[in-house]
Amino acid sequence: LSDMLMSIAPEAKTVLVVDDEPEALLLFARMLAATERDYRVLTAANGREALRMMRRAKPDVVLLDLVMPEMDGFAVLAKARRSRRLRHIPFVIISAKDPSGQPVVSNALAVSMADGLSAHQLLASIDAMREILSSSPAPDGPASPESRAD
Questions:
Q1: What is the DSSP letter of 84?
Q2: CA-based diameter of the chain, in Å?
Q3: Gap between the Cα atoms of 51 and 79, Å rounded
Q4: In what helix (H) or strand (E) does residue 3 lie, and over which residues does it extend?
Q5: Residue 64: helix, strand or coil by DSSP?
Q6: Which of 16, 89, 90, 115 gives 20 to 30 Å between its CA and that of 62?
Q7: First vs last Cα of the chain: how many Å apart?
Q8: Could you tell me how far CA 93 lies from the centroid of its own chain?
Q9: Residue 4: which region, alpha, beta or left (left: phi > 0; alpha: psi -120 to 50)?
């Protein structure tokens, strides 16, 4: 967590953790307190509270659960991206389950380039991810590189 925060927001001082599970809020607050950085940790239990806190406290980075009642993380992301005051804030997704309730088995997915992504690169990346994520694995699990047809 510390390494990831340093890579996406090295100057961050205030971190907002958004999750509807009180245990998750405590866990992330403890993890952040255990780092060498002296983060100011704010917490929100749902999307509406998160947006209010983001407008009021202006966090440097947000750790966001996607699956929450009232307003889910997708709605928070959409509203933040439409707001001039909030769109610059980086988000880190911390969900353990996807919106269908299935466990998330990947620990990270990031796309970044030092000089930024062009519109063409971003669209190509999204298209490639859509293709990958929409294909269902074979009954025996993901195909090995040797068994894939090129």
A1: T
A2: 53
A3: 8
A4: helix 2-8
A5: strand
A6: 115
A7: 37
A8: 2
A9: alpha
